[in-house]
Amino acid sequence: MFLDNDDMMHPMRLMAFNDASSSLDLPDNMPFTIPCKLIISSETTSPNATMDSFISSPRDFDQWKRNPKLRRNNVQLIPSSRCDDMDCNEYFDYIVPTSVMVKFFNENPVGITSHKFCDLRLYRVLADLFPYEAQDHPSYPWLLIHYKVSEDAKKHTFDNHGRRDKRKKGKCHSIDQASFGGEFKPSYRDVNLARKYHRISPGQVAMCRGHLESLVITYIGRDNWTLNDVKRQKTIELNGLYGYGLGNELWAQAHEDMFKLTGGKHDQLQHLHLPTQSQLFNAMLLLALWYFRVRT
User: Fold this and answer.
1) Which of 8, 54, 172, 291 suits 60 as a labelling partner, its CA being 20 to 30 A distant?
2) Distance (Å, rounded) from C-alpha 207 to C-alpha 201?
3) Whole-prediction pTM
């Protein structure tokens, strides 16, 4: 079971995953996810951003709604059915069998597994191994509090040429995506592209490069159909916004850099033991019973 570096875990989260691992009729090598979570903005800081501000007891899930210290617009409940739309699915939503992690590290070169975007590739593997639509889950309470950088904050950084707002330094506990974290220091290639395409700065090129690299490392050697579709979409988008040809050049560079990390090895996780309909039904039933137990 994972926990992100500075997120907060509800006391019932361990029990829920323990119930899942011991009770659900799923194959031994299948991960299981409970994605429902509370999202709090990076502006919500200590002492308000502590677990005792959100719950009063292990079986309490609603104190945050009543707590005047928490501004409601900075705290949002994301049920499992909305995680995908809100870009809130994470690898640490899963409990993962050791065999899956061993296989992942064995079949992906160290250049990939040590990359800052490796977590996105791992998430995609876990989602493929447990192909169960989140909205099919029964409704159950949040089990994790996760910091999330708003789209407005990301846009502000992009508009500020890859530099985060110094006035907010110290207020942000964590960054939910490595492609957004820290300062974006342009490389010489970013500078050259910015000189060639005048509608974009070197810092903005660096941000776009990071985004494309995160997409390539997610799919390369695993799902080339999706990779090609993403390539088409992103090159059209960048060409239209910043000048014809930028998207093609930037994608080619990002793809080449990520390809080198694979060492030419494009192995995929094989023998995916997908759940049967009866196993999925049992999972839904047991989760519903667990939800009823912890709320009564």
Assistant:
1) 172
2) 10
3) 0.80
Question: How far apart (Å, rounded) are the C-alpha atoms in residues 265 and 91?
Answer: 23
Please choose, from the candidates 117, 88, 93, the residue with its C-alpha nearest in 3D space to the C-alpha of residue 212.
Answer: 117
**pLDDT tens digits for 154-212?**
665 665 655 665 555 444 333 444 444 445 678 899 999 999 998 888 988 998 999 99
Q: Alpha carbon of 121 to those of 117, 124, 163, 213: distances in Å?
A: 7, 5, 26, 11
Q: Is 190 helix (H, G, I), strand (E, B) or coil?
A: helix
**Which 8-state DSSP code applies to residue 270?**
-
Quote the CA–CA distance of 125 and 100 in Å, as a whole number. 9
Q: What three-state secondary structure class fits 165?
A: coil
In contact, 263 and 109? CB cutoff 8 Å: yes
State the helix-helix crossing angle for 188-196 and 202-219, rounded to 10 degrees: 110
CA–CA dist 179, 212 (Å, integer): 9
Residue range 29-52, pLDDT digits in tens: 788 888 888 888 766 666 667 888
Q: End-to-end distance of the chain based on CA atoms, in angstroms?
A: 26
From residue 251, how far is each of 117, 125, 214, 217 by CA, in Å?
Answer: 16, 23, 11, 12
**Per-residue buried b or exposed e for 267-285, using 16+ beta carbons within 10 Å of the residue's own CB:** eebeeeeebeeebbebbee
The 8-class DSSP code of residue 166 comes to G
Number of Cβ within 10 Å of residue 80's Cβ equals: 24
Tell me which amino acid residue 77 is: L
Q: Alpha-carbon dihedral of residues 3, 7, 9, 14, nearest 10 degrees?
A: 0
